[in-house]
Amino acid sequence: EEWEEELDMAIKGRSEIRDWKTLRDQIKDDLRKNHKSLPLSAINQLMILSNFATLRLKGASRIGASLEIARQWHEGNGLWYSRRVRALARHYQIFEQLPHEKRGGTQGARSFLHDESVETRCRTWLSNIQTGQVTPHALQNALHTTILPELGIIPKQPISERTARRWLIKLGWRCTVIRKGVYMDGHEREDVVKYRNEIYLPAMSKFEKRMVRFEGPELTRVEPTLQPGEKQIKPYYHDECCFHANDDVKSAWLRPGERVLRKKGRGRLIHVSDFVNEEDGQLVSRGPTGEIIKDARRIIYPGANGDAWWTHENLLEQVKYAIEVHDEVNGPNCQALFIFDNSSAHASLPPDALRAFEMNKSDSGKQRKQRDTIIPDSNPDPTKRGLLQKMTTPSGEPKGLKSVLEERGFNIQGLRAKCAPVCPFESTGCCMARLLSQQDDFRCQTSMLEQLIQDAGHECIFLPKFHCELNPIEMYWGWCKYRYRQIAKRNFNEAKKAALEVLDACPVEVIRRFINRSYRFLSAYRLGLTGKAAEWAVRKQKQHRAVSQQAMMAIEAVLS
After folding, report:
1. What is the DSSP letter of 85?
2. 534 vs 79, more confident
3. Which residues, other chains included, contact 218 with Cβ-Cβ below 8 Å and sequence gap of 6+?
4. Is pLDDT at 427 greater than 90 in this prediction?
């Protein structure tokens, strides 16, 4: 072979070959001094040579020593491996150094990524890609079609996908398993933050003073201090969840060759609408022996040949019944606070509500009649403020945008009726419909859900959008679904029974801990923390109801 000819030529030109004892000492010295800087392959080669030298010094032949090393280091019969060991030993005995490594390219070669312009272009391209859509293949295509051609760089060989993967790692990207967490898409949007900081947090601060709390690791009950004339407040967190008949665990312990045959579809739907609270866990009325007499939970089975889908009317009926159960259990001295997600369905307005975008430009025509209104105090023309404004003409026809705005004193000359297809997100006066919809009487209308609860003498508030961490019932759903998937379900009847079983199985202590976790997020947001910092503080203070000053100091220490 080629290496044998090289060795033969080296032997002929060399006057002295040192013995294995001297070479072994040299090998050990190299390992001791350079073990931190040497690559793993070189360390393995030096260890093999050290073992080979020891065996030779103990009297083993070259073939015997190489076969013994092959037996220890190689899984096969070791004949080929022993030949490679002898070649390595002969090379080191002649040259007193390891063979030159030809794999991995030229040592010290400069990558295109070392060019600052290439790195900047790559980072810019990656930043413009939607989160979750970055892949080595996509970066490889971009390098060949966009990034390198624009910089006038023509590589001798195309950039491989493996190289693109290494570049992604060097640029800070990692292949990550996607897990559920705090939903950040829109979480810190300007309008969402404004609602959270200016409406939701101040309102909850007032309500919390009148609530029972369960604090500390032992969940010690703390009664509120009520002012004269105040009533205790009991919060009820609402949400809806769906269980599928074929929801099962995602993994199983199997013997080699075994397979689990799962049904293709997710199965029929079990829709649950429920409330949880801190004191009792569920919104129920119980008898003298603890049996449930009335339950505010509603379960339907929608789909083909099943129940109709859940609607806003179903929710209103459920809330009416929930108020009835609350009043029966707590009496007149306890006020309920119903907390809902900030969804469009929960904010549904009455049929005669004021809707600017459903109005025509001119009077009459095919448009809905809307209720009369009071011109708000924020109207630009002070002489019009507080006046009753009829939304119909004297003949009973519905008024259009032009008439309503002119009656309020707006100058709408040259202003179009509506934008097409939609108005710009941050615009306030791009068209008549947008201008009218921004007026307080159109913007601040009470939904049917709020009106129902307020008429019954109770309170209602909506969570900020994208803030599922503030709704502890979301954690309750996760607790139930985890256990639901553990139960074997042969048919839909067994699935219904399993869903009901897990919904009733969650202890009230667990629900209290879920609620305390949501209150820790509230506390973090009040302290100005957001995103990852808030999530870290909540996890750090898991035995408490609020984020302490100690956690804030720890965060400040990390940031500084």
Report:
1. H
2. 79
3. none
4. no
